[in-house]
Amino acid sequence: KVFDVDMAADVTIMEEGTELLDRLHELEAEANRERLIHWGPRTLDIDILLYDREMIMEENLKVPHVEMAKRAFVLEPLAEIAPYAYHPGYHKTIIELLEALQNKKD
Known about the structure:
single chain, 106 residues, mainly alpha
């Protein structure tokens, strides 16, 4: 049976955004990540959701993650560890984004 585990981690790093992305891709490869369908399920998916309060808009890296405010499975674990982290695009905290998403569903 296939199952999903969604989690968030708060890390302190020395790498720039693109260097971090390269390292995350290396970790996915070491874990034998498989993605058989584009935008489909995969065995491992590590995303950079936020990078301090920075906005990074490069071809291969968009931070904050462009879809995070629409996804409860992203916001819920992030709100557990960093409810007051700031989304520089929406000018809201993670808990505010989660509450807005939950209210939208009601």
